[in-house]
Hints:
Elements: E1 8-9, E2 12-13, E3 17-20, H1 30-57, H2 64-81, H3 84-92, E4 97-99, H4 100-133, H5 138-141, H6 144-170, E5 179-180, H7 187-191, H8 199-232, H9 237-265, H10 274-298, H11 301-321
Helix pairs in contact: 1-2, 1-3, 1-10, 2-4, 2-10, 4-6, 4-8, 4-9, 6-8, 8-9, 9-10
Amino acid sequence: xxxxxxTINGNQSLCTKFTFVAFSSLEELQLVLFIVFLIIYLCTIGxxxxxxxxxxxxxxxxxxxxFFLVNLSFLEMCYITSVVPQMLxxxxxxxxxxSVGGCATQMYIFAILGLTECCLLAAMAYDRFVAxxxxxxxxxxxxxxxxxxxxxxxxxxGVLVESAQITLIITLPFCGTGKIQHFFCDIMPVLxxxxxxxxxxxxxxxxxxxxFIMSPCFLIxxxxxxxxxxxxxxxxxxxxxxxxxxxxxxxxxVSLFYGTALFTYLQPKSTHTPETDKATALMYTMVTPxxxxxxxxxxxxxxxxxxxxxxxxxxxxxxxxxx
Length: 323
């Protein structure tokens, strides 16, 4: 599929590697950026591992909502790892290149994880919809088999749709300098390097994005419209606050994720600039995954209580072990 030697096509040779030039104008700041991005990456991985560990060791958190949160935390760790480690290496070396095959692999992984997260957030919204609108039937509608099927469907959709879309892109001929105005192989910056007309493929990408990004978004909006109506029917203010508090973390995560995704993938190619592409990419590759553990620990009462119990238990154990 990928040739190891350049092939001459007219007066142009096909690229066998790409060069990232996103931070080429910031040479004096690259060490600072390395330290900042490394801290964010380690905090993101650590925060998501803490959430996963807390849920696994706390029986009270073995519910559908936290089953999906474990999936989301695992996905976020994979998501940020598909981009940041390579970016950190490139901040320390002079030659910031990647082979076409390596670029294809990164695009596959990143795109699959992105669409999977869209579907998983919709599954989490459905879980909250059932919990608030049909509380008496919650265990029936959200049993273990249903949760597994929803999670599996999210991953299956991401793999199937994005594998086809990225294959369509990566089989294009790429020529010229091979310089990517970005810090990883994102769809639009790579598409700009194709030496053929990509208008039809751009139309397909836009249609796929509209269908498979907006469909989960539409389901989330419908779920929360029903949830809002159900909450407003609760007579007590305390009951309304308790019901809303179970959704607030998810609403924040959805807003962060979809805000950057819609801005990035549903705007025409003519409006894309390297600066806006890099800024929004930093948001959805680093900032959003880093904020998710913070949101789910600071705004989630059950997770905070589980964390406090674990830390208190550990402090008591350490106190007993001291002479």
